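In response to reviewer comment 3 from the previous cycle, which asked for concrete evidence that the modeling workflow produces usable outputs, we include below a single protein chain processed end to end. The sequence was submitted unchanged, and the resulting structure tokens are shown without manual editing.
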Amino acid sequence: MPNGGIKKYVSLVCGLIIMLLIMNPILHFLKSDFNFEEKFKTIMDSTKKNAVIDIDDKAKALSDIRERQTNVLSHSQGNQEGEHAKVKSFAK
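The workflow returned the following structure tokens.
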């Protein structure tokens, strides 16, 4: 860097350039037609759809589990009734 009185001006110009480099993307973003409400609504709709799909998947899984448990229970009750019939016929 230069010495003396010019050093102040060089620092000032470098600082301004750095500020412009930092501010340029921010200004570009603010100038654009970015609709926060529309973007937020899109994100929320997507989140709701994903939540509904997740709930549906869990409901199907629970339904499958309940069906399997019902089948196992009815199968085991059928075996118990068959064993009771065998015991009754053996006792006669």
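The chain is about 90% helix and 0% strand. We consider this sufficient to address the reviewer's concern, and the full set will be provided in the supplementary archive.
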